[in-house]
Amino acid sequence: MPDPISDLFSAPLTFNWTLSFRCNFSCLHCYSREEIAQELSTGQNKQIVDLLAQRQVPFINFGGGEPLIRSDLYELASYATANGLNVSMNSNGWLVDEAAAEKLKSSGFRSVGISLDSADAQRHDEFRSMPGAFARATAALDALHAAGIKTTMSSVVSRINHESFRELLDLAEAHGVSQVYLHNFKCSGRGLTTAKSSI
Ligand code: SF4
Prior knowledge:
There is one protein chain. By secondary structure, this protein is an alpha/beta fold. The protein has 8 helices and 6 strands, in the order H-E-H-E-H-E-H-E-H-H-E-H-E-H. The protein has a single domain (4-197), classed as Aldolase class I (TIM Barrel, Alpha-Beta Barrel). The longest helix is centred in the C-terminal third of the chain and has 15 residues, at 133-147. The radius of gyration is 18 Å and the shape is globular. 33% of the residues are buried. The structure holds iron/sulfur cluster. Residues 23, 25-27, 30, 32-33, 64-66, 92, 115 line the site of iron/sulfur cluster.
């Protein structure tokens, strides 16, 4: 006798997809920035999309590394959308200007998460080792919002924000963010190296 629950959950709901470990940032807490791996071609990645569509996986969430480092991100997202999948991604926001937001919208992105760790621009920039990161991240949220893409905000819980979540929520609200995700620090990659050196 068919089991409706087993049928419904016969595949993962979300495929979290690291297209690349490469990134334009070098955050001290990053769990993936030091990884080196050969990347799959666009054609190989489309074969993965085919497989996910066959297995009826409903959601793909691109992460990394910075997903926009891959110039074929839009093409892959369009392909996935055309095959019935819902696509989203997490980004540091640096490469998301108005033109990129429009391209993300037209390639089917339903939601984009931007990393923001503090409502204080200087603290965020220092934490991300990238001057201007806060300004570009908040501009990215505004550009995505204007393009009609739902936005979320991701924050790594740390010493720079654990006493100021109210300000983070106010920042999210001011930029039209739908949800705020708090992440634990992952003790691997560059994060592990940084943690060891600061003990
Ligand atoms: S934490 Fe994110 S933005 Fe920072 S280096 Fe890693 S992938 Fe890039």
